[in-house]
Amino acid sequence: MPRICGRSSSTRQEEVSVFQLYCCGLKFRTYFPHSMNEFIALRLESDIENEEMAGSRPNLRYYLRQQPVMLTIVLVLVVIAFVFVTALSHAYHSQREALGARWFNRGLADLNAKNYPAAVTEFRSALLYSRDDYRYQLNLAEALIGLKHTGEASAYLINLWDREPGDGFVNLELARINAQQDQTQDAVRYYHEAIYAFWPNGQETKRRDARLELIELFLRINDKAEAQAELIALSENAGDDPAVQLRIGDLFLRAHDPEHALAAYRTVLRQDVHDAAALAGAGRAAYDLGRYSLARGYLQSAVTINPSDQLSSSLLKTTELVLNMDPFGGDVSSTERNRRIVEAFATAGDRLKACVVPNPAVPGPAGVQPGLNDEWTSLKPQVTETGLRRDPGLVDSAMDLVFQIERHTDKLCGEPIGKDLALLLIAKSHEGSN
Fold first, then answer.
1. pLDDT tens figures, 54-85
2. How many whole angstroms separate alpha carbon 277 and alpha carbon 360?
């Protein structure tokens, strides 16, 4: 309840100013109107004041009616700004990609032209615009390999291998680097992964190339058993391509597998009977197998087509000697057999006398083989064509001694030549038959 101003009987009321009395009068009238008219007047005055105050600030309902429009406008502006920024960002990245692709294409051209220094520079420039691009790093590694910078190339390739361990090209290049560094175990692992890795269409021959390189690695470290196993796997899927079969045949020969080598060469000859390389290879394979009649046919054809083939000519001469000196060959009459035995016995005696190993502690002209020399000297008078006719048992005795002499002198005095080589081959051939 507001305090009602009134008169005071004290002296202090007289000191109240006229202004204070006036205010008290107004307040009194506000709270205690003297009549209904005065109350209505005061009420109207209060409403007018409220309307004036409402006009001085936004109406809440008006604001609520206008908010959706304002939000829509703001949203449209945000979308426009987002589209603009996105377009600008896309244009920026497109420009960077275009510049990277331009440097990359230049690098490919120089790489194909074997201009490795320029290719390395251009691939590095391409990577400035797309640092993680797989193709850029892969081709840069290839260019670095061309420059013999295998250390740096290996770092790129290992990073790529971590990202794509099934990439055939990456595995093949890592295998080559490890093979060059004599890291055989790692090289073999990467070669196997390259062989069984994914290769894009048109690059399936890379799988075969990886296996061929692995075979070469095994041959270089003299692991012929592993080389043969890889060659057999290769030959099963090689098809009838003459060039591939010819190389497979050559590799089988180097791996000491003449049987599979002969099969590969015959695959080539079924398509071209006049292929000089295949004829020579087949002749050598048959020669190594001890199939001298077959070898002679192939070698004769090879020398006829290519007279400058010195190896085939030499093998053909030895083959002819084997066939003409073997007393146990098919369709040989007893007279011819005896003649051959006499010739072989004399040849072995000459070899025995020539193979002198100086050793003062051991007497005898042949140094460490006096027993063979004595045996040959003792048997010599009996080994004649007449003696062989009279005593057919001398045939085996004489030839056994011949074979012993040739094997023994082969170990002591090195590989023989001419007739002695032919006799050694005959000995090995009949030893295998027995």
1. 555 555 555 555 567 677 777 777 887 777 77
2. 50
